[in-house]
Amino acid sequence: MVDRIIVKNIEKKERFLILTEEILTEASKEKENGDSLWNTDQIDVVSAEFSLLKSHILEGYLYFQFGKKCRMLQSTYILTDSVQNLNGTKLGNKIAEFQEDYNRY
Predict the structure, then answer these.
(1) What is the average pLDDT across 60-75?
(2) pLDDT tens digit sequence for 18-67
(3) Of 37, 47, 31, residue with least CA distance to 88
(4) Which residues is 64 bridged to in the sheet?
(5) CB 3.0-4.6 Å disulfide test: which of 2, 31, 78, 92 passes with 86?
(6) What is the pTM assigned to this prediction?
(7) How far apart are the C-alpha atoms of 45 and 98, rounded to whole Å?
(8) Cα torsion for 46, 49, 50, 55, to the nearest 10°?
(9) 66 vs 76 pLDDT, higher one
(10) What is the DSSP track for the chain?
(11) Burial class of 45 by CB neighbour count within 10 A (0 to 12, 13 to 18, 19+)
């Protein structure tokens, strides 16, 4: 079940937009980094997910791929499921920050 909800608060919308842009930038940097803890498949999932989220945010919506009750992002699942300490990377920190705001909305 896919859901979208309107982001009425302009400040929240801007915050989500800034975070998605920062995550996409960090994902690009990790992909170029030869000794990254992230593998390219993981980065591709993060990039695709946050590109989709960004497009919905630009339209004024928050997108919930698995419905409003299941708010865990695929990217967050990668963080928690990985043997590597992806939470310790800049990209991991930004995803966790986005997930916290996403859960509260």
Answers:
(1) 86
(2) 999 999 999 999 999 988 999 999 999 999 999 999 999 999 999 988 77
(3) 37
(4) 3
(5) 92
(6) 0.91
(7) 16
(8) 160
(9) 76
(10) --EEEE---HHHHHHHHHHHHHHHHHHHHHHH-TT-SS-HHHHHHHHHHHHHHHHHHHTTEEEETT-TT----HHHHHHHH-SS-GGGSHHHHHHHHHHHHHHH-
(11) middle
Name the amino acid, one letter, at 72: M
* Assigned token pair, 59: 């339209």
Q: Are 43 and 96 contacting, i.e. CB atoms less than 8 angstroms apart?
A: no
Long-range contacts of 74-80 (CB under 8 A, 24+ apart): 74/45, 74/46, 74/49, 75/23, 75/45, 75/46, 75/49, 75/50, 75/99, 78/42, 78/45, 78/46
Residue identified by tokens 């996409």 is: 24
Q: How confident is the model at residue 1 (pLDDT cuts 50, 70, 90)?
A: low
